[in-house]
Every structure is written in structure tokens, then in C-alpha cells.
Amino acid sequence: MFQYNYRFLLLNCLWWNHRSQRSAWCRASLHLAGRTYHLQPAVGAVNMTIPNALIRGAVGGEALLSVRYSSFSLDLPVIKWQLQREKAVTVVQSIGTDIIGTLRPEYQDRILVFENGTLLLHNLRLSDDGTYDVEISITDDIFTGEGSITLTVDEPISRPYIHMEASSVLELSENFVLNCSHDNGTRTTYKWFKGGKPLANETRFVLSPDQKCLTISRVLMTDEDIYSCAVENPLGNMTSLPIRLAVYRRSSVYIMLSTGGIFILITLVTVCACWTPSKK
Asked: Which chain regions cross the lipid bilayer (predicted)?
């Protein structure tokens, strides 16, 4: 009986504090064995949890900015989502799932708010990229629940390809450039491979600051190989088709030119020897 009365008084205290908007202090007290115990106040608050503070989305896709909250109140929450900019942009404000007012043109037909405060964005755009602040308040609760979720929106990568001035080069040529290009993709990083093995900045292999271009400062015969590049962003990665770079010795070229020159000379001599002027 003693334990039952203690619980009864404590719950009464929580209920009074929950319903009162004038004071956060509970005035109930408990008398036990001639001694008086003052019960501590129960302060109403919206407790919010965010399962994932970083969401990655693709252009044209969907993003679920998930939140959960708990409260002693049974009233509907007032939910407010804002996008951080130089001046905060209100994405949506609602009472429960009922949207208040008119959505901004860029969000019309793209917004859905769930009862637990979660926000669903349809048909993502690059402009949706950013940090979203959420605020959930309930009339009976003194403290508001607040949180933030970062959304990244990227364009999927198309297959990259390697562009170079020629598929062959002379030995000892300088500053031969290979360029890794792609038509689509945002927030990209690049990697280069020679013979299937990763390439890094070396004495003769120089990568541009964004690693999109590979420059062979002085071409050697050992540089004849298969080259490829890989492009990566938060949505995935793609690798180019391999391309072979042929390297020719300068001495071989000289021999070819010399042989060709001798062949042309012999041909001219033969033609001249066989030619006789026509008689008129």
C-alpha cells in the first residue's frame, strides 16, 4: 500500500507539471514516517534523435531526412525544416502532416512530411545540396527538439575516356599529356593506372592538382603500356576503357626514314633510266 501511494503522488506531480504553462516546478510533496520529501520538477521537452546525419542523393532521385521524437504530450507537433544558406530558407512548416501556408515554387509537389517529423524530398536537384535544420515543438512542452541533417546531391558519373594527341610517341619526347574526361558527374576525384597498377606523382609522371591530367615529362621505352583512369564521386565510380601508348625508338625512326629515302632514290633512278624522250 505504501509503494502504491508513492507512485500515485509522483504521477500526479508529472501530470500537473505537464499541463501547467505557468510553472515548471512540481509542488507535490510526500510524507513518509514523519518526514517530508519534496519531489523534483518534471520539465516537458521534445526529445529528438537523428538516425543518420549525412544523406547522399542523386539528381532526380529521392532523399529521406529521417528524424524521431518523443514527448509526453498527445498534441500534434509543429514541424519546421529550413535549409542553411546565407539567409535561411524555409523548406516546409507543418502541424503534424498538414502543411502550413504555400510552399515555395521550387518545393511544390516535391515535399512530404511524416508524423514523426521526417522529411521526404522528391526529384532531387543540385540546388537541394546543403544542411537542413529541423525544429519540432509542442505547445505543452517547454523545450523544443532541434537537429541538423546534411544532404549531398550529385550527378551520377558517365564512363570516362582518355584523350591524348596521338596513340604513339617518340622516345625522349617531353611533356606528353593524357587527359581523363567524362560527360557527366559532380564532386569527382580521379585515379590513374599503368598496366593495371595505380600511378602516383613521380619524377617523370606528374599529376595535375585535380589529378585529371597525367603528364609524362620525358618519355622512355618503358612507358609503352596500357593506361586507364577511374573517376569516383559519392554515388559510385567508373573506369575508362584501357588505351595503349606506343613508344618508338628514335634510331628506328631514322632507319625507317633512311630506308624510305633510299627506296625513293632507287625508284627515281630506275624511272629516269627507263625514260626516253619521244621523237616528233
From this structure: 253-275
The C-alpha cell 633510266 sits at 273
Alpha carbons 54 and 64: distance in angstroms, whole number? 11
72-114 per-position pLDDT tens digit: 888 899 999 999 999 999 999 999 999 999 999 999 999 999 9
Q: How far is CA 170 from CA 158, 196, 229, in A?
A: 32, 23, 23
- Top CATH class of 47-154 equals mainly beta
Give yes or no on whether 47-154 and 161-250 have one common fold. Answer: yes
- Rounded mean pLDDT of the chain? 82
DSSP tag of 242: P
CB 226 within 8 A of CB 240: no
**Would you kindly state where each structural domain of the chain is located, as residue ranges?**
2-38, 47-154, 161-250
Q: How far apart are CA 100 and CA 159, in angstroms?
A: 44
pLDDT (mean) for 261-267: 53
For 145, phi then psi, to 5°, come to -85, 135
Calpha distance 81→112 (Å, rounded): 11
Q: What is the value of pTM for the model shown?
A: 0.70
The one-character DSSP state at 45 is B
| Class of domain 161-250 (CATH, top level) | mainly beta
C-alpha cell belonging to residue 156:
551520377
- pLDDT tens digits, 17-57: 333 333 333 344 444 455 554 444 445 688 999 999 999 99
